[in-house]
Design brief:
Shape: globular
Distance between the termini: 39 Å
């Protein structure tokens, strides 16, 4: 049962990759993101966190109604409300927006060299730290790339992958390494969970080398596919329509998920629910966001 649970839990790695891959997109046009994205994310974060708090108190009953105001404010600011716990993504995102001048004011002619060096140094240190951990060696805590703190690796990597030309063989090589990294984390989780008798996630840190490689592969894959589709007018319109809904889907999908689980008395740990639930929740969420987009004022919150 624990082994099956490990397999189900690890199947959720695929949608999780969308988070760092999405953060990587902030590096494609850093100046426009610095000026617009901050204001377009803070208000939805606060609004839907408050809705999530009310939702969890009165519908799910997962949050006590007897807490002090400071506790509720802390839960919102730290994205610790159960339904909106996925909003943890906003916190490193806001930190990235504050650091975006690093991307904006580096001279365009020097960006490739500077960012290429930062990416290389970060990945090497990441690899060495993991190897040291594997052999039981303590890695110096202070030996880190300070200018690449937090999630800054992803927008820098996103800019770099968006502005370099890769040959087909290089792209396939990145895809292959990404697949190997995914299999490594998946198989490692299953084996480790089997030995421990409980779920043990291997390589689950989104800032560790396996996830950086997987996210880079996903980012590059969709970059190439979207570039081809955007060449046709029909494909371009479809991409614009979908891209305008994805942020809203991210904001409300947990509301839909928890509502269905409670309404239909679903056991989320079953092997089939992550597959069926993904399409069901996504479909309903897309429809709801498309509807909200048509409502004045509310359209600004998705």
């Amino acid at each position: 049962e624990d082994l099956a649970g490990a397999g189900v839990d690890d199947s959720r790695r695929v949608p999780r990759v969308s988070t760092p891959a999405g953060v990587g997109c902030t590096g494609k046009r850093p100046q426009s993101h610095a000026q617009k994205r901050f204001s377009r994310t803070v208000l939805p974060f606060i609004f839907w966190s408050f809705v999530g708090l009310i939702y969890d108190i009165f519908y799910l009953g997962s949050v006590s109604p007897d807490l002090e105001l400071a506790n509720y404010v802390s839960m919102i600011l730290n994205a610790s409300i159960p339904t909106t716990s996925v909003f943890w993504f906003f916190l490193p995102l806001f930190a990235i927006y504050l650091a975006l001048p690093l991307l904006i004011y580096v001279d365009d002619e020097k960006k490739k060299k500077v960012f290429g060096y930062l990416i290389f140094a970060y990945l090497i240190l990441n690899l060495i730290r993991n190897l040291f951990g594997f052999f039981g060696i303590s890695f110096p805590v202070d030996l880190q790339l300070i200018v690449m703190g937090g999630w800054l690796i992803y927008p820098i990597l996103g800019w770099y992958l968006s502005n370099i030309e890769l040959r087909d063989i290089q792209q396939r090589g990145i895809y292959l390494i990404g697949i190997i990294s995914f299999l490594f984390t998946w198989v490692g989780t299953v084996i480790s969970s089997y030995k421990a008798g409980s779920i043990v996630n291997v390589g689950s840190n989104l800032l560790d080398l396996p996830y950086i490689i997987i996210s880079s592969s996903v980012f590059l894959f969709f970059k190439q596919r979207f570039a081809r589709k955007s060449q046709s007018e029909r494909g371009s319109k479809l991409l614009v329509s979908l891209s305008g809904l994805t942020f809203g889907v991210y904001l409300i999908h947990r509301f839909v998920l928890n509502f269905l689980v409670k309404l239909l008395d679903i056991q989320p740990a079953t092997w089939y629910w992550p597959i069926i639930g993904f399409f069901l929740v996504s479909g309903i969420s897309f429809l709801l966001v498309a509807l909200i987009k048509r409502i004045p004022l509310l359209c600004r919150l998705v």
